[in-house]
RNA sequence: CGGGGCGUGGCGCAGUCUGGUAGCGCGCCUGCUUUGGGAGCAGGAAGUCGGGGGUUCGAAUCCCUCCGCCCCGACCA
């Protein structure tokens, strides 16, 4: 392509509304323009780059025997009512009516639709397994879209769905996807981690997220560099650091003491002189409306996700002040497990074996000391706590760290949720009708791009991996009025095209500085500069990532460039 | 949904407190010069000051109201 004919509206200044690196650069480099909150138009460069990502995805999906299909983004409500999700999903779903008043929604995922198709077509175990995938728009009415393409209301998803006869079949499909995803993200040049994840409202047993570590990310993952343990924060289980001071020995009796106006752990801790880790944090919660008390070490944070899993509740919330007062007769700052009436008590494992602790007395203005779990109250122990930086890996005992990350992919073992609720059945070897077991697998295409930008940006712009950059190389004549330079650049451009290089010719009537800045900004991995040395038959090859240059003979450049492209092209590493 | 910020040529901003001819930088157009890291000079085009209502002789500026965008939190398949 010739740059003079393209619309690449680069900006000199950072747009005021952009905060994170990828958002700033996508706008500045002329990749995207915003239509509205969470809705973006992809201009030429973004589309080119996204097309390359999709191409890699298609190749790897095809390689595991997946079949590309396409289903409408607009869904009738009926199928969603069959699975129960029409009701289960709240404001995140875009809902609308057609002219007859029939309810529809914009697809946010497609389990229902593919199950609907499968139900009409699959009759026999001989037709399984099946892997279907598509790449299409998804819509989610995010309460707060943010950070450019990171969190939007319309995005492109590669979603696939598998149908198998049994758990072993599903496991094989899941592993195929795991490997395909590794190959895809490898080839896109991402530095990523596959982490154990919580399957959430999607249902199902096992799930794994593909995370790109980045300060701009919105998810937390926990990693033990020494042992290789990795999990989403919602799921990570670690050993806590020991309490700041050991518990007093002996079996001292319960003792109430006054703590007027001291409600938070910090206030009480400062008041009584014992560190937060010697306190029990008591949180009154409502699990699907039912009251319960969650108990944690004073310096720990409750994981609502873990609490939900532990209780089997679908919705967990903090109790309202009036509820706490009604259930316990004390304000939120003074509640505790001793004498908590018939509230269910759930205690975090870090409290197991502790003694002589401090907690609320269920009486306003009072706390209790010398509280020992097991003696003074009975609670069910479970892992309820959010893992922290500096905790220890359970298996190896080595320290873990928390990292922010961008979720680029997620694979789920769904189980029978959709085949059962929607009546998808095939006959097995014995002629008996059974529900196939399903899996679903997603990749956020734009997030692959944002992740790559976040991981490959510097002070002058982005430097995308050659596999997903909008162009592999740009030929830059320094001075178009110099006919030797102009003609050499034209020849080189055609020659590189012929050699199969995805090349751009910067034939704009701009000064060299402007061309260099723009090329750096939009992140083209290689630049061939045709300048004054052309008289000696020399051009210059510059690599965006290292910003290093070397001279090369015009006649050699095609060979040299294709060789370098091959050398820096990310390849799939062999991960199990 | 709670809290905060912002809305002025394409982009970045000043002007608003204290009402009085709408400005600056970049970009854009024309011409000349320049030509290896966002050129110089000269000339030029371009703004319902987010929308509506009000106060006033007069509103970007004061008042009311609505809308939009960004950030923090809540939420998040």
Quick recap:
By secondary structure, this protein is of the alpha+beta class. It is 26% helix and 28% strand.
Describe the structure.
- The protein has 576 residues and is of the alpha+beta class.
- The protein has three domains: 20-236 and 402-454, Bira Bifunctional Protein, Domain 2 (BirA Bifunctional Protein, domain 2), CATH 3.30.930; 255-382, YbaK protein; 471-568, 3-Layer(aba) Sandwich (Rossmann fold).
- Helices cover 26% and strands 28% of the residues.
- It has 14 helices and 33 strands.
- The strands form nine sheets. Strands 3, 7, 8, 9, 10, 11, 12, 23 and 26 form a nine-stranded mixed β-sheet that branches. Strands 17-15-16-18-21 form a five-stranded mixed β-sheet. A five-stranded mixed β-sheet has the order 30-29-31-32-33, with helices on both faces.
- A hairpin with a 4-residue loop joins β32 (538-543) and β33 (548-553).
- It is globular and about 95 Å long.
- The two termini are 40 Å apart.
- It binds one RNA strand of 77 nucleotides through α13.
